[in-house]
Amino acid sequence: MKKVILSLCILAGFLFGNTLAEIKQNGVIRVGVLGDEPPFSSVEDGDFTGFDIDFAKRIVRDIVGENGKVELVEVTTHNRIEALQNNQVDLVIAEFIIDPERENLVDFSMPYFAVNTGILTKKDDHYKKISELRSKIILVETDTEAEKDLKKAGFNVKGCEDMFHCYSELKAGRGDAFAGANLIVLAYPILDKKLEVNIESFGTASYYAIGVKKGNKDLLSALNKELINLSKEGFFKEAYENTLNPFYKGTADKKYFLLDDIYRIFG
Protein backbone atom coordinates (compact mmCIF):
# COMPACT_ATOMS: atom_id res chain seq x y z
CA MET A 1 0.00 0.00 0.00
CA LYS A 2 2.83 2.41 0.87
CA LYS A 3 4.41 1.76 -2.53
CA VAL A 4 1.10 2.52 -4.22
CA ILE A 5 0.74 5.81 -2.32
CA LEU A 6 4.34 6.76 -3.17
CA SER A 7 3.74 5.99 -6.83
CA LEU A 8 0.60 8.11 -6.81
CA CYS A 9 2.48 11.01 -5.22
CA ILE A 10 5.19 10.80 -7.87
CA LEU A 11 2.55 10.64 -10.60
CA ALA A 12 0.76 13.65 -9.14
CA GLY A 13 3.99 15.63 -9.20
CA PHE A 14 4.48 14.70 -12.84
CA LEU A 15 0.92 15.62 -13.76
CA PHE A 16 0.55 18.85 -11.83
CA GLY A 17 4.10 20.13 -11.33
CA ASN A 18 5.63 21.42 -8.13
CA THR A 19 3.04 23.18 -5.99
CA LEU A 20 3.70 26.57 -4.44
CA ALA A 21 4.06 24.90 -1.04
CA GLU A 22 6.65 22.45 -2.43
CA ILE A 23 8.56 25.26 -4.12
CA LYS A 24 8.72 27.24 -0.88
CA GLN A 25 9.82 24.17 1.03
CA ASN A 26 12.57 23.41 -1.49
CA GLY A 27 13.56 27.07 -1.77
CA VAL A 28 14.06 26.78 -5.53
CA ILE A 29 12.08 27.85 -8.60
CA ARG A 30 13.10 26.31 -11.92
CA VAL A 31 12.64 28.90 -14.66
CA GLY A 32 12.73 28.17 -18.38
CA VAL A 33 14.47 30.95 -20.35
CA LEU A 34 15.73 31.41 -23.89
CA GLY A 35 19.45 31.34 -24.62
CA ASP A 36 19.94 34.06 -27.23
CA GLU A 37 17.32 36.81 -27.28
CA PRO A 38 18.93 40.05 -26.06
CA PRO A 39 17.98 42.22 -24.26
CA PHE A 40 15.72 39.65 -22.61
CA SER A 41 17.96 36.63 -22.23
CA SER A 42 21.38 35.67 -23.50
CA VAL A 43 24.44 33.75 -22.35
CA GLU A 44 27.66 35.62 -21.63
CA ASP A 45 30.73 33.82 -20.30
CA GLY A 46 28.58 30.83 -19.42
CA ASP A 47 26.01 32.81 -17.41
CA PHE A 48 22.50 33.93 -18.34
CA THR A 49 21.93 37.67 -18.43
CA GLY A 50 19.17 40.08 -19.43
CA PHE A 51 15.77 41.36 -18.34
CA ASP A 52 14.17 37.91 -18.12
CA ILE A 53 16.92 36.79 -15.74
CA ASP A 54 16.53 39.82 -13.48
CA PHE A 55 12.76 39.34 -13.63
CA ALA A 56 13.06 35.67 -12.63
CA LYS A 57 15.41 36.44 -9.74
CA ARG A 58 13.08 39.10 -8.38
CA ILE A 59 10.09 36.74 -8.56
CA VAL A 60 12.03 34.07 -6.67
CA ARG A 61 13.10 36.54 -4.00
CA ASP A 62 9.54 37.74 -3.43
CA ILE A 63 7.77 34.38 -3.60
CA VAL A 64 10.34 32.09 -1.98
CA GLY A 65 12.27 34.54 0.19
CA GLU A 66 15.69 36.15 0.39
CA ASN A 67 17.38 32.74 0.53
CA GLY A 68 15.42 31.41 -2.44
CA LYS A 69 17.32 30.19 -5.47
CA VAL A 70 16.50 30.38 -9.16
CA GLU A 71 17.51 27.44 -11.33
CA LEU A 72 17.69 28.65 -14.93
CA VAL A 73 16.89 26.06 -17.59
CA GLU A 74 17.44 26.88 -21.26
CA VAL A 75 14.37 26.22 -23.39
CA THR A 76 13.41 27.01 -26.98
CA THR A 77 10.20 28.39 -28.43
CA HIS A 78 9.43 24.86 -29.60
CA ASN A 79 9.98 22.89 -26.36
CA ARG A 80 8.94 25.32 -23.62
CA ILE A 81 5.41 23.88 -23.38
CA GLU A 82 6.82 20.36 -23.17
CA ALA A 83 9.23 21.51 -20.43
CA LEU A 84 6.24 22.65 -18.35
CA GLN A 85 4.15 19.58 -19.06
CA ASN A 86 7.02 17.24 -18.14
CA ASN A 87 7.73 19.16 -14.91
CA GLN A 88 11.23 20.10 -16.05
CA VAL A 89 10.55 23.73 -15.06
CA ASP A 90 8.09 25.43 -12.72
CA LEU A 91 7.52 28.43 -14.93
CA VAL A 92 8.63 29.85 -18.26
CA ILE A 93 9.75 33.42 -18.90
CA ALA A 94 10.68 33.25 -22.56
CA GLU A 95 8.80 35.74 -24.76
CA PHE A 96 5.81 33.44 -24.24
CA ILE A 97 2.85 34.96 -26.11
CA ILE A 98 -0.67 34.17 -24.93
CA ASP A 99 -2.86 32.56 -27.57
CA PRO A 100 -5.95 30.32 -27.41
CA GLU A 101 -4.15 27.17 -28.62
CA ARG A 102 -1.44 27.49 -25.98
CA GLU A 103 -4.01 28.23 -23.28
CA ASN A 104 -5.34 24.71 -23.83
CA LEU A 105 -1.91 23.33 -22.90
CA VAL A 106 -0.52 25.65 -20.20
CA ASP A 107 -1.76 28.39 -17.90
CA PHE A 108 -0.64 31.99 -18.37
CA SER A 109 -0.15 34.76 -15.85
CA MET A 110 -1.36 38.27 -16.43
CA PRO A 111 0.58 39.91 -19.28
CA TYR A 112 3.71 41.93 -18.58
CA PHE A 113 4.70 43.19 -22.07
CA ALA A 114 2.79 43.83 -25.32
CA VAL A 115 4.06 43.05 -28.83
CA ASN A 116 3.09 43.39 -32.48
CA THR A 117 4.64 41.80 -35.54
CA GLY A 118 7.65 43.76 -36.80
CA ILE A 119 9.38 43.37 -40.19
CA LEU A 120 13.17 43.35 -40.48
CA THR A 121 14.68 44.21 -43.88
CA LYS A 122 18.00 45.23 -45.41
CA LYS A 123 18.57 48.98 -45.57
CA ASP A 124 19.66 48.72 -49.20
CA ASP A 125 16.21 47.37 -50.18
CA HIS A 126 14.40 50.50 -48.92
CA TYR A 127 11.15 48.79 -47.91
CA LYS A 128 8.90 51.26 -46.12
CA LYS A 129 5.41 49.72 -46.30
CA ILE A 130 4.04 46.23 -45.81
CA SER A 131 2.37 46.45 -49.23
CA GLU A 132 5.81 46.51 -50.86
CA LEU A 133 6.38 42.97 -49.60
CA ARG A 134 3.23 41.54 -51.14
CA SER A 135 5.09 39.49 -53.79
CA LYS A 136 8.23 38.91 -51.70
CA ILE A 137 9.39 36.07 -49.43
CA ILE A 138 8.96 36.85 -45.75
CA LEU A 139 10.91 34.65 -43.35
CA VAL A 140 9.17 33.67 -40.11
CA GLU A 141 9.86 31.33 -37.25
CA THR A 142 7.23 28.60 -37.43
CA ASP A 143 4.31 28.50 -34.96
CA THR A 144 4.50 32.20 -34.13
CA GLU A 145 2.03 35.07 -34.19
CA ALA A 146 4.02 36.64 -37.06
CA GLU A 147 3.48 33.53 -39.17
CA LYS A 148 -0.24 33.47 -38.35
CA ASP A 149 -0.72 37.20 -39.04
CA LEU A 150 1.07 37.13 -42.38
CA LYS A 151 -0.54 33.92 -43.62
CA LYS A 152 -3.96 35.29 -42.71
CA ALA A 153 -3.19 38.43 -44.73
CA GLY A 154 -2.12 36.33 -47.73
CA PHE A 155 1.63 37.01 -47.71
CA ASN A 156 4.20 34.53 -48.98
CA VAL A 157 5.97 33.21 -45.89
CA LYS A 158 8.89 30.83 -45.53
CA GLY A 159 9.33 29.03 -42.22
CA CYS A 160 12.58 28.92 -40.24
CA GLU A 161 13.63 26.72 -37.35
CA ASP A 162 14.28 29.70 -35.09
CA MET A 163 14.94 33.44 -35.09
CA PHE A 164 18.68 33.09 -35.70
CA HIS A 165 18.09 30.99 -38.81
CA CYS A 166 15.59 33.56 -40.11
CA TYR A 167 18.25 36.23 -39.64
CA SER A 168 20.87 34.07 -41.37
CA GLU A 169 18.52 33.38 -44.30
CA LEU A 170 17.81 37.09 -44.69
CA LYS A 171 21.51 37.92 -44.68
CA ALA A 172 22.15 35.18 -47.26
CA GLY A 173 19.48 36.59 -49.57
CA ARG A 174 17.13 33.61 -49.27
CA GLY A 175 14.33 35.88 -48.15
CA ASP A 176 13.35 39.51 -48.61
CA ALA A 177 12.24 40.22 -45.04
CA PHE A 178 12.17 38.62 -41.60
CA ALA A 179 9.03 38.98 -39.48
CA GLY A 180 8.73 38.36 -35.75
CA ALA A 181 7.68 39.92 -32.48
CA ASN A 182 8.69 43.56 -32.83
CA LEU A 183 10.49 43.63 -29.49
CA ILE A 184 12.77 40.93 -30.89
CA VAL A 185 13.33 42.13 -34.46
CA LEU A 186 13.96 45.69 -33.24
CA ALA A 187 17.07 44.34 -31.52
CA TYR A 188 18.71 43.25 -34.78
CA PRO A 189 19.47 46.73 -36.21
CA ILE A 190 21.16 47.56 -32.91
CA LEU A 191 23.60 44.71 -33.58
CA ASP A 192 23.67 44.83 -37.40
CA LYS A 193 23.71 48.33 -38.91
CA LYS A 194 22.85 47.03 -42.39
CA LEU A 195 19.33 46.15 -41.25
CA GLU A 196 16.28 48.23 -40.34
CA VAL A 197 12.71 47.91 -39.08
CA ASN A 198 10.43 50.40 -40.84
CA ILE A 199 7.29 48.29 -40.31
CA GLU A 200 6.99 48.01 -36.54
CA SER A 201 3.40 47.05 -35.80
CA PHE A 202 1.72 44.81 -38.34
CA GLY A 203 -1.23 42.68 -37.22
CA THR A 204 -2.97 42.53 -33.88
CA ALA A 205 -1.35 43.18 -30.51
CA SER A 206 -0.26 40.17 -28.46
CA TYR A 207 1.06 39.84 -24.93
CA TYR A 208 4.01 38.22 -23.19
CA ALA A 209 3.10 36.32 -20.03
CA ILE A 210 4.65 33.81 -17.64
CA GLY A 211 3.71 30.22 -18.40
CA VAL A 212 3.01 27.63 -15.71
CA LYS A 213 1.85 24.04 -15.84
CA LYS A 214 -1.86 23.61 -16.48
CA GLY A 215 -3.76 23.45 -13.19
CA ASN A 216 -0.99 24.83 -10.94
CA LYS A 217 -3.42 27.38 -9.48
CA ASP A 218 -1.56 28.42 -6.31
CA LEU A 219 1.64 29.22 -8.19
CA LEU A 220 -0.32 31.09 -10.87
CA SER A 221 -2.14 33.14 -8.24
CA ALA A 222 1.15 34.01 -6.53
CA LEU A 223 2.64 35.14 -9.85
CA ASN A 224 -0.33 37.37 -10.64
CA LYS A 225 -0.12 39.02 -7.23
CA GLU A 226 3.61 39.51 -7.77
CA LEU A 227 3.07 41.17 -11.16
CA ILE A 228 0.56 43.60 -9.67
CA ASN A 229 2.95 44.45 -6.85
CA LEU A 230 5.89 44.92 -9.24
CA SER A 231 3.82 47.26 -11.39
CA LYS A 232 2.78 49.33 -8.36
CA GLU A 233 6.39 49.46 -7.22
CA GLY A 234 7.59 50.73 -10.61
CA PHE A 235 9.70 47.64 -11.42
CA PHE A 236 8.78 47.64 -15.13
CA LYS A 237 9.19 51.40 -15.46
CA GLU A 238 12.65 51.21 -13.91
CA ALA A 239 13.62 48.29 -16.17
CA TYR A 240 12.44 50.25 -19.21
CA GLU A 241 14.33 53.39 -18.27
CA ASN A 242 17.56 51.76 -17.08
CA THR A 243 17.89 48.63 -19.21
CA LEU A 244 15.47 48.23 -22.11
CA ASN A 245 15.25 51.73 -23.59
CA PRO A 246 19.05 52.24 -23.50
CA PHE A 247 19.45 48.93 -25.37
CA TYR A 248 16.88 49.83 -28.04
CA LYS A 249 18.20 53.41 -28.24
CA GLY A 250 14.67 54.80 -28.22
CA THR A 251 13.39 52.67 -31.12
CA ALA A 252 10.94 50.60 -29.03
CA ASP A 253 7.91 52.53 -27.77
CA LYS A 254 7.44 52.42 -24.01
CA LYS A 255 3.78 51.44 -24.48
CA TYR A 256 4.96 47.87 -25.11
CA PHE A 257 6.71 47.69 -21.75
CA LEU A 258 4.42 49.62 -19.43
CA LEU A 259 0.98 48.04 -18.98
CA ASP A 260 0.05 50.00 -15.89
CA ASP A 261 -3.52 50.59 -17.08
CA ILE A 262 -4.11 46.83 -17.17
CA TYR A 263 -2.70 46.40 -13.67
CA ARG A 264 -4.81 49.22 -12.28
CA ILE A 265 -7.92 47.26 -13.24
CA PHE A 266 -6.82 44.23 -11.21
CA GLY A 267 -4.75 45.96 -8.54
UniProtKB/TrEMBL annotation:
Residues 28-246 form the Solute-binding protein family 3/N-terminal domain. Keywords: Signal, Transport. The keyword Signal applies. InterPro entries: Bact_solute-bind_prot3, Solute-binding_3/MltF_N. SMART domains: PBPb (SM00062). SUPFAM superfamilies: Periplasmic binding protein-like II (SSF53850). One of its GO terms (biological process) is amino acid transport. It holds the Pfam family SBP_bac_3. The keyword GTP-binding does not apply. It comes from the Bacteria. Residues 1-21 form the signal peptide. One of its GO terms (cellular component) is extracellular region. Belongs to the bacterial solute-binding protein 3 family. This is Amino acid ABC transporter substrate-binding protein.
